[in-house]
Design goal:
Length: about 160
Amino acid sequence: MPADKTLSASPPKKASIPPAAYAIVLVLALGLGGFWYLNRKSHEPPPPPPPLTGAAKAYVRYLKLSEVDMQAHESYMKQQVVEITGKIGNVGDRVLEQVVLNCVFRDAYGQVVLRERVPIVSKKMGGLAPNDVKPFRMPFDNIPESWNQALPDLVIAEIDFS
């Protein structure tokens, strides 16, 4: 009879972790890793825009900004919108696909408070042919309060030729 007792006794069960627990841990680890990566990427500064090419630098003298005016008005959202309007003329001999301006707003001490790149000529607008003049409009609703209320510096930042 002692032999029967050893046969009928079952071995002790091992503690096992259910597969669902592995899946939960894996999903949490991937989620935390993704959050960490995206949070780190969001704090990196954007890459600087490409500088003007040699051909674009030489062509800047053929672009003329005229009738530049600045007005402020209140939007429907009770927010101040500063609008800069004017005309750009191409007195050169090349067709322009895109012209981008750097608008540099300064405070009372001359320090830069906002620098924004704004396209004033684009392919969607039909480009800018030689001896052509086109109006442009640049609205800004994100200018800091410390701005000196003067017309910003308008610097040609990019020219793309057709």
